[in-house]
Design a protein that fits this description.
By secondary structure, the protein is of the alpha/beta class. The chain is built from 7 helices and 9 strands; from the N terminus they run αβαβαβαβαβαββββα.
């Protein structure tokens, strides 16, 4: 109960921040068409960018895997209040149950949203969980990144978490999809992870470039 109350308080603080943010979203046409056709997809993002994209979960009808830690309790409460579905676990604790929960939610029409380098890093190195989900549900992986013009950066955190400051400009950029992992492929193949990391880096570069162009026109 205590953790839920803390999570609720954090949600109110977070909501007060996001209502001030100036947000632009870039979606490739391929993604827009997939959403119109209600095709399955997996949403991939970096762990450190969670504060900059958490509010998007409801917009994309997303379900998130949240760790079973105390901090995870806070994030779980916040995500549910935003309007997302969650399943608890991680690659280190409760991994099998989290995967089963996510697959169940995917069957119900929710889009899996995965912090691909979580829960403890290394930073910006994809773990096989997202690839396994892609393989099982037969869905491509869409990279989700953001760039922020001013933010608090938690340098001591392993993921260098960013929290946009009040009235920050946020450029969200979706990258082109990484093809679904086929049934005969192994989600633990490091080549697949490296391909996903490259797609994430490309989307992140695009977000940064679009933000710079926006600032230059102001």
């Amino acid at each position: 109960m205590k953790n839920k109350l803390i999570g609720f308080a954090l949600f109110l603080i977070y909501r007060s921040l996001w209502l001030t943010w100036r947000i632009r979203i870039h979606e490739p046409e391929r993604m827009q068409q997939a959403m119109r056709d209600k095709e399955p997809m997996v949403l991939a993002h970096w762990h450190g960018q969670i504060p900059g994209i958490l509010y998007l979960l409801k917009r994309y009808h997303a379900a998130a895997i949240i760790s079973t830690s105390k901090d995870g309790d806070f994030v779980d409460t916040m995500a549910r209040l935003i309007g997302a579905k969650t399943t608890r676990g991680s690659t280190t604790r409760g991994g099998a149950s989290a995967l089963k929960g996510m697959l169940r939610l995917a069957k119900e029409g929710w889009r899996p949203a995965i912090a691909i380098d979580g829960p403890k890093g290394p930073r910006h190195q994809a773990k096989p969980g997202v690839l396994e989900i892609s393989r099982v549900i037969g869905a491509p992986i869409y990279p989700l990144t953001c760039a922020v013009d001013r933010a608090w950066v938690f340098h001591k955190a392993w993921d260098k978490t960013i929290l946009p400051k009040p009235f920050a400009r946020i450029q969200v950029a979706w990258g082109d999809p990484v093809p679904a992992v086929s049934r005969d492929q192994d989600g633990r193949n490091p080549d697949l992870a490296r391909a996903l990391e490259a797609a994430m880096q490309s989307a992140e570069h695009q977000a940064t470039q679009l933000l710079q162009e926006l600032i230059a026109t102001k």
